[in-house]
Recover the amino acids of this structure.
């Protein structure tokens, strides 16, 4: 039975391939997109295998029909999951973001671009767990900050010699005016999104509680948007 099913499926694939070749060379059949053609092949193989199993099964008809219904149910579930894959990704993002605040949820869009989703925390802010080199750093997304601003401890952890920096650049903070230093890091990444040789600001000790992900990172993105309690960054 398995051999017969294989021959039937192979014959169907061969037939569809011949039709496709004729369409390409003679342009005698209506045009069909590559995605639609792949869907036709996929559904044709399924239909052939299920139909062959029903026709060749040496079992009572009632039992065979039950198996057919079960396979159809599985097929419909798979198709529904694929159709609503983006909605399912959103649900997964909310679950994961709730379990590990700041964890970037990585996906790839239809154009092959890396996307990350961040979930707003209980304080109403977007937090992102990222890395500078091999050092893990947690950032507060701040669209009001021109640059990436590192706390003194995060900068030191990332390998910057904070003791040799010149803290001479005036900056305004919630606590008033202070000064910070400029430095360059080899790379910074949030999930799969990674940029190299980027300038950062380093705060003095105790001037900043959480490192800020500013516009010199966000402006490199293709897009960023906020949808309710989610921020979506596209590389």
């Amino acid at each position: 039975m398995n051999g017969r099913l294989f021959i039937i499926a192979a014959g169907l694939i061969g037939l569809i391939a011949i039709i496709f070749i004729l369409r390409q060379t003679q342009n005698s059949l209506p045009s069909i997109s590559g995605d639609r053609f792949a869907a036709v092949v996929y559904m044709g193989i399924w239909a052939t295998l299920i139909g062959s199993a029903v026709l060749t099964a040496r079992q009572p008809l009632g039992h065979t029909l039950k198996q057919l219904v079960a396979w159809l149910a599985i097929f419909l579930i798979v198709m529904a999951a694929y159709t609503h894959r983006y909605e399912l990704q959103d649900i997964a993002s909310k679950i994961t973001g709730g379990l590990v605040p700041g964890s970037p949820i990585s996906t790839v869009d239809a154009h092959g671009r890396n996307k990350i989703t961040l979930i707003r925390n209980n304080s109403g802010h977007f937090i992102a767990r990222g890395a500078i080199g091999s050092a893990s750093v947690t950032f507060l997304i701040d669209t009001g900050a021109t640059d990436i601003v590192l706390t003194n401890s995060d900068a030191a952890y990332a390998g910057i010699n904070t003791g040799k920096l010149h803290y001479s650049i005036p900056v305004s903070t919630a606590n008033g005016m202070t000064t910070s230093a400029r430095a360059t890091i080899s790379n910074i990444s949030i999930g799969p999104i990674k940029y190299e040789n980027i300038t950062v600001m380093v705060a003095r000790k105790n001037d900043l509680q959480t490192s800020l992900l500013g516009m010199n990172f966000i402006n490199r993105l293709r897009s960023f948007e906020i949808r309710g309690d989610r921020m979506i960054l596209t590389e």
